[in-house]
């Protein structure tokens, strides 16, 4: 069954009704899926509540649905992971956002580091880029039936991102020169981990002084193994390890 996200205000529970007014969603339902009155779809409020709803009115500007079932989404992991991603070149960020959304990421914050090549010209350019990235997260969340849409933040400087580490129960920074501590060791020595941050550098990785700065802020350098991973791979690997160790990958 196809899933769509709507704003909480579009759900009127006391009347058992849901309204879809997003034009892209309406076109997709009518023109691509060719759904009609009486068909059912999944609706999610983006805050971990989901509904089975039946189409009762379908027009070009608005779709009205009747709530048949309601429940808590079962697709969200028990940990909230934020990825601070050094902005890579070309379309690599698109892939990072899509795949991390599938794996269960909660937030992605683009990050400017010493070795970041991509330069966003001004705030308007930043906002336009982030708007496109958010759409990628939205579509990926629909496809993999997430209960929450990961939020893509505005780009931050490395120093500002490091300052955010205090908000997390655990913050890690994969580094090719770190050979002693891996994510498994770190997660086994920490308890009650709910909010975790991963810091990933762009192409070329982090400068040594950035690792020193991160360590002083309590961010733990870790190894992801003996091989050098690309920036678009490192985040997947770190997130997968965390989801397997603390989340919901791999079952029991």
TrEMBL record:
Molecular function GO terms recorded: rRNA (uridine-N3-)-methyltransferase activity
Domain Ribosomal RNA small subunit methyltransferase E methyltransferase, first and last residues per copy: 76-243
Localization, UniProt: Cytoplasm
EC number, as in UniProt: 2.1.1.193
Catalytic activity reported: uridine(1498) in 16S rRNA + S-adenosyl-L-methionine = N(3)-methyluridine(1498) in 16S rRNA + S-adenosyl-L-homocysteine + H(+)
GO CC terms of this entry: cytoplasm
GO biological process: rRNA base methylation
Domain Ribosomal RNA small subunit methyltransferase E PUA-like: 20-68
Protein's UniProt keywords contain Nucleus: no
The keyword rRNA processing is annotated on this UniProt entry: yes
Role noted for this protein: Specifically methylates the N3 position of the uracil ring of uridine 1498 (m3U1498) in 16S rRNA. Acts on the fully assembled 30S ribosomal subunit.
Family affiliation: Belongs to the RNA methyltransferase RsmE family.
Name assigned to this protein: Ribosomal RNA small subunit methyltransferase E
Species annotation: Thermotalea metallivorans
Gene behind this protein: rsmE
């Amino acid at each position: 069954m196809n899933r769509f996200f709507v704003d909480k205000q579009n759900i009127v529970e006391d009347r058992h009704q849901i309204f879809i007014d997003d034009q892209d969603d309406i076109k997709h339902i009518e023109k691509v899926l060719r759904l009609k009155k009486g068909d059912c779809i999944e609706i999610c409020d983006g805050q971990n509540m989901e509904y089975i709803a039946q189409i009762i009115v379908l027009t070009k500007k608005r779709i009205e649905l009747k709530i048949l079932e309601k429940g808590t989404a079962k697709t969200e992991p028990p940990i909230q992971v934020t990825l601070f991603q050094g902005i890579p070149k070309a379309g690599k960020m698109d892939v990072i956002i899509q795949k991390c959304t599938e794996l269960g990421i909660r937030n992605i914050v683009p990050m400017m580091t010493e070795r970041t090549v991509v330069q966003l010209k001004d705030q308007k350019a930043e906002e336009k880029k982030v708007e496109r990235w958010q759409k990628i997260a939205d579509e990926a969340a629909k496809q993999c039936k997430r209960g929450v849409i990961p939020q893509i933040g505005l780009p931050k400087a490395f120093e500002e991102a490091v300052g955010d580490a205090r908000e997390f129960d655990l913050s890690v920074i994969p580094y090719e020169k770190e050979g002693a501590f891996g994510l498994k060791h770190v997660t086994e020595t920490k308890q009650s981990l709910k909010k975790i941050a991963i810091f990933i550098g762009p192409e070329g990785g982090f400068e040594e002084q950035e690792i020193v700065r991160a360590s002083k802020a309590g961010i733990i350098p870790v190894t992801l193994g003996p091989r050098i991973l690309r920036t678009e791979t490192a985040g997947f690997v770190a997130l997968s390890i965390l989801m397997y160790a603390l989340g919901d990958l791999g079952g029991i």
